Amino acid sequence: MPLDLDDARLRYHYSFSPEDHERLPFYSALMRALESDELALELLAGVALEQRNPMLVLGALHLAALRGHPVLAPDYEAAVRGEIVDVPGAARTVIAALHDDPALVRGELHRFTQTNEPGRSAVLQAVIARIANGRDRTINLIDVGTSAGINLHFDHFPVRSRDDDNPLTLVCQDLAGVNRSLALPDVATRVGIDLSPLDLAVDDDRLWLKACLWPEEERRHGRLDAVIDARSSWPDSTVLAGHAMECLHEALAMGDREHLTIVMNTWVVAYFSKADQAAYFDEMVRLCSSENVAWASIEFPWVVDWPSPSGDGQPPRKGGSQILATVPGGSPAAWGWCHPHGHWLWMDDLT
Description:
Elements: H1 5-13, H2 18-23, H3 25-35, H4 38-45, H5 54-66, H6 72-81, H7 87-100, H8 103-106, H9 121-132, E1 138-144, E2 159-160, E3 170-171, E4 173-176, E5 186-194, H10 203-211, H11 218-230, E6 238-241, H12 244-253, E7 260-266, H13 274-290, E8 293-299, E9 321-326, E10 333-338, E11 344-347
Parallel strand pairs: 1-5, 1-7, 2-3, 4-11, 5-6, 7-8
Antiparallel strand pairs: 8-9, 9-10, 10-11
């Protein structure tokens, strides 16, 4: 079948929010260069539909730089330090390196985009605290698309409105409706599900996680290093390898059924087939209506094939991800919006 280059072009074009284009001049210029480069379009178009994310191409190029590629490494290191003078020129250098050796990307397209950004824990804290408020103060937690399981430890990150000297601090601007005074529940069991989970103890897995980060965000790189250092002191967790629909009930069985179980997913359902998206939605609705289960979903609404929930609306800022929540005995409802990496949060006032 012919490659769908128009689909690839659109994916490159819409992969960054407007504010990310403003914050990331090097990656913004590189994304626009990839969008107009036929080889880059062909490489992305050749990826299976569910994993056809430009971040996979960006991650492969960054991985080559982290491994010391003689052309790419200097530009990426300069990007980390904010020292690129000729941003368009740096983007052209990356494209030239790709054309010189397409295997830099092609050889890594078997991988999965697995950032599972811990900044989303700033949002998860607010959502999970609201779900648990007035209910069970101890929960079981299941994370669908968990990658290395970092967000299973959502409760181990301080959340502040401004940066401090702690590399684990998550900086989140609460725009409206966020009650940070609500206590976080205790977590009895932490179970992740991922099609191809990563292990923070494995060198290649750690390197791929770093490659999936954006080089201009030095703070994120420092946070990942801090997470790797702190992980051994955090509670135990279990990660199941497989698809959500294959592993969900096994994950549920691992928790204490007397406690509320919260299932969460953040930017993973876009990688499901349309049929699996619908099946997952229906199963979560069924579980929340018949079991002591709640659901917290943070996804970009225009890439998931789900019915519009009550409270649906427009994000306060372009490129926002929608927060969809379902409490036990309830129906899916839109609770608000957030930046895909948790930089800001806006929640509906449900009082």
